[in-house]
Amino acid sequence: MAPPSLQRDTNQTLTEQLAARFATRIRDRLMAPGTRLPSVRQCAALHEVSPSTVVAAYDQLLAQGLVEARRNRGFYVRDWTRKPRSAPDQKAPEASFSIASSDPCEARRLNAPISASTLMRGMFHSGSDRPQPGMGVLPPEWLDNPFMATALERVSAGRGLLDASIRYGDPQGDATLRRVLAERLTEQGIDATPAQVVTTIGATQALDIVSRTLLKPGDTVMVEEPGWSVEFARLSALGMRLLPVPRLASGPDLAVMARYCEDRAGTPEAPRLFVSVSVLHNPTGFCLSPASAHQLLQLAQQHDFHVVEDDTYHHLAPDHATRVAQLDGLQRTIYVSGFAKILAPAWRIGYLAAPPALVEPLLDTKLLTTLTTPTLLERALAQCIEHEQLQRHAESMRARLAAARTRSVYCARAAGCRFVTEPAGLFGWIDTGVDTDALALRLLDAGYLLAPGALFHATRTPSTLMRINFATAQQPHFWAAFQRARDTMVKSP
């Protein structure tokens, strides 16, 4: 027998109703510990909702401690009556960010909002042909091109496929790709040699390798705020203490950074690392000024911390944008980038360029986690770069994005939103005038996944801001749904 339909004409969102339905069954012992919940797609079909709604509902159950996620296996009911053991004498971090809180009271207080994991799982369970304004990537149809397949065919010809398949590749990465990347970095003003480059499984793994190499649980890391929610969640999961640094138009708030460093100088809590998106910052679109970059390096030298520069969006960036790595010649800066945003998300090719003394320790960490990276794909990417195909593709994407940005800005302003920062790059940072956590849950019911502003803060607080993806927020039908949901919230007591 099919379950009773969820109600679409109540104050409760479909996400809240679905989560409450499962929660009641679990607490009434109708679903025993160890029971597997339906898959996202099965549950969406059964209850006639979008997969994004199911993902958010399961996140609410995670936040309440009623279910657990098992890697590659799904969601299972956990023994929610057990109390988690706490480590004695463990000092709480000064700022922390979790993918989903395990405290039911806290989860109810926050109404288990859209989390970092919801946003990430939404990338794989969209289940809708509607563009998703909260996503962090370009639409798949934008990335459709013939030259990647051609490059893959070339490197697979003859014994290419066999040779690249029957033995591990170079742990540091394919030599040709590292040479090509070093040449491009030099052209960009970053003096790097192939020996300083290590390829990774995407830029995310590069960031993870750096963290695992240079930090230990309890170490202090300065992060930009607003900033990338997944990075907050990842660092917190590794046991790091997060110190939020306000991001200004010219760069990080250097006065706040200096105060953090001076107050903790000579103690175990002194900052060890600063993680920054210098160019086309996510979510504000800000770009670092040369003066701020210079002062940041002076501060890093004075207080002995490293700067991790995440240049994920450099293919979409304006010419001659300032990078920290350009100024210090990879002495205190570790440069990280990748190709998922512009070319091939599923190829998962990223890289880092590091000071010579750090290359071997970073490589050791890579070996312990993934051994090596896919040689065949790295060789194909090297061809795409050498033949200038990537450059032409990036130029085309910048032009297409500029047109989409114009349309999205017009639609957002027509819908009554205000841009907090000047529109630039892939993302817009806008003020909606209402709580975007609640707004996001309502729009999930309409099949749209949003990125509420609270996600971009190390310590989650309610916000009226949200991030939009210019490439996926240019459709009038989304903004019509947005206005309906916002108007309902405004009228509600």
Set out the fold topology.
Blueprint: H1 14-27, H2 40-47, H3 51-63, E1 67-70, E2 74-77, H4 104-110, H5 116-124, H6 147-156, H7 160-165, H8 175-187, E3 197-200, H9 202-214, E4 220-225, H10 229-237, E5 241-248, E6 251-252, H11 254-263, E7 273-276, H12 290-303, E8 306-310, H13 324-328, E9 333-338, E10 350-353, H14 356-370, H15 375-386, H16 389-414, E11 418-419, E12 427-431, H17 436-445, E13 451-452, E14 465-469, H18 476-491
Parallel strand pairs: 4-5, 4-7, 7-8, 8-9
Antiparallel strand pairs: 1-2, 3-10, 5-6, 9-10, 11-12, 12-14, 13-14
Helix pairs in contact: 1-3, 2-3, 3-5, 6-15, 8-15, 9-14, 11-12, 17-18
Main attributes of the structure:
493 residues, alpha/beta, 8-stranded mixed sheet, 4-stranded antiparallel sheet, 14 strands, 43% helix
Describe the structure in your own words.
The protein is built from 18 helices and 14 strands. It has 493 residues and is of the alpha/beta class. An eight-stranded mixed beta sheet has the order 3-10-9-8-7-4-5-6, sandwiched between helices. Strands 11-12-14-13 form a four-stranded antiparallel beta sheet. Strands 1-2 form a two-stranded antiparallel sheet. Helix 13 links the parallel strand 8 and strand 9. The longest helix has 26 residues. The protein is globular. The two termini are 37 Å apart. About 5% of the residues have low confidence.
Question: TL;DR of this structure?
Answer:
Helix content is 43%, strand content 12%. The chain has 493 residues and is of the alpha/beta class.
Q: Can you count the helices?
A: 18
Unreliable stretches (pLDDT < 50, length at least 5) are 84-93, 96-111
Shape: globular
The description of the largest β-sheet is: 8 strands, mixed
Structural class: alpha/beta
- Would you report the number of β strands? 14
- Portion of residues in beta strands equals 5-15%
Mean pLDDT: 89
Helix content: 40-55%
